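Changelog note: in this version the structure field was regenerated for every chain. One regenerated record is shown below for reference.
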Amino acid sequence: MLPEIGLFLLIISSVLAFLQVSLPYVNKDINELLFKKLAIGQALGISISFLVLVYLFVSSDFSVLYVAKNSNVNLDYIYKFCALWGAHEGSILLWLLLLQIWFVITACTKDNNQYCYNSYGFAVINLVLLQYIIWFSNPFARIFMNIPENGLDLNPLLQDPGFIIHPPLLYLGYVGYAAMFCIALNFKNFVKNLKLIQKINIISWGFLTLGITIGSFWAYYELGWGGFWYWDPVENASIMPWFLGTALTHNLIINIRKNILLKSSFLLIIYSFALSVFGTFLVRSGLLNSVHSFASDPKRGLYLLAVTFFIIIVGYINFFRLNIKTKSGNKLNIKDILLVINGILLTLSASIVLLGTLYPLVLEVFEISSITVGPGYFNTVMIPIFMPLLFLLGISPNFNKVLNNKSLLIRQIIYKFIVSLLIACFINLVIYEIYEIFYISIALACFIFIWIIVNLFFDIVINLYNKSYSFLKRYISFYIAHFGVALMLLGISMSSMYTDSLDVKLKLGDKVNLGNYEFSLIDLKKISKSNYKSKIAVINVLNKKDNTKFSMLPEKRFYPNSQMLLTEVALKANLDKDIYLALGDVITEPNNSYITLRIKIMPFIRFLWLGGVLIFLSALLGFIRL
């Protein structure tokens, strides 16, 4: 009975959404109280339906098809709960639930001008997604015959702490862009709602940043290849709206301060949300071959593709109806020009990633050719964009204050440039002894990192010297975000160029050296858990510098229910380096026991994820300040 109640609540919510969408056409004198009651009814119906599905998972009700396919009686309760968003149906319902949370938040804010018109957009999105769930993605569908006793199991790749927080964080970001789109549909009050849009954008962008950061770390230790970003199509699906959200974050600064460039922000809102839905289409359509894609169904994919075009068309209809009068005398200064260039480069980045993701799909769909666009392409085309982008990021603190003495400003920038260049040359030529032209990219990355740090440092010191404490307080999120970007650059460049790697075959008692460490295989173990069996290699590691020893335990797990074999890496994490062991083949025969092992020593890689966390904290602080 419970599954039927859950579906019935979604149908009732769909009817309420239809009434809310239809109401303005029936009676132009909108009753705000009635609008609120309809909206609350939808939110309650969707929330209770979600809780019903949670109960079905936790209680292992395998008479429900979605539960039977994505859970198992032996799963830990935390994974029984999280299995709800482990496949398509539940993830879309979670998407819809989070949209209701955003709706409540925006309804309660003092910056919400003309509540009824703003909530109309939410009702439209609710109606579209509810129809999608009811007709194409029903999580409450029943099994009436041959009900499985134990369930098929959650995908073993998802039985990890990363799965608990990574998808909800991404969805919070995506749904935030949906909320901005809904409010932007009230185009007559677009200018009045700019502060509200800025609040939603900054925290949505922060959640998306943290979600991508955690996803990168999850892939790093779960997939066993030792990388953090592969330009996989599903990874690209999350980074594209992030690029546009970053551009929007900077563009809104100009919008609110000077009431100009408003139409560009409107377009960024449209495409940020459209790309969020389009990314969902890529994951669900069955067009992709990716470790991240799941629940492929062409019908679902086509519906989501139609929703993407619907968003763009509706957005453009309102864009062309947008009539904004720019305040006279408001012109772009040098700081505004830098922000505009920043937005152009970020939008170009999103466009290039979209092209690289879609091009092989288009060729394959029309049976023209079958090609793969991988990291080589993306690294080649993105680095020339990122370098000037990061250079502008470094120079930006010089324009936080308006200086009348332009010659003094130019001299300060030249001094900082020279200091950064000298420090970078010292690090590259003296410490790391880089002379080959092959390493020009790492030398340039090192200079950009120093350039960002030097500009931030001098700006903070000068303001402290002048006792401009209120100014520093106002720009604290700016400093944290840009410092986070610098740390990410350090982590990416150092780990990419100075990683030591070795693939080796080891028998019991064998030793191998890499860097300052000696690795020896001393034992092979087998263990059995409730839902998997594991082979564990016991590796003793000796640091030859200080003679310290420690053990590492890489695993190979087999999940019988899903017939999947997974690698569980062993990590020895320090701030300055990671020691990474990934187990390959494990042969345990009486006279021939050996393993294949991938060993990596990666310097400063933790700074990549530390930088991402700092950027999220800057967004959180910015949201609190607004």
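Spot check on this record: The longest strand covers residues 517-528. Residues 401-498+608-613 form one domain.
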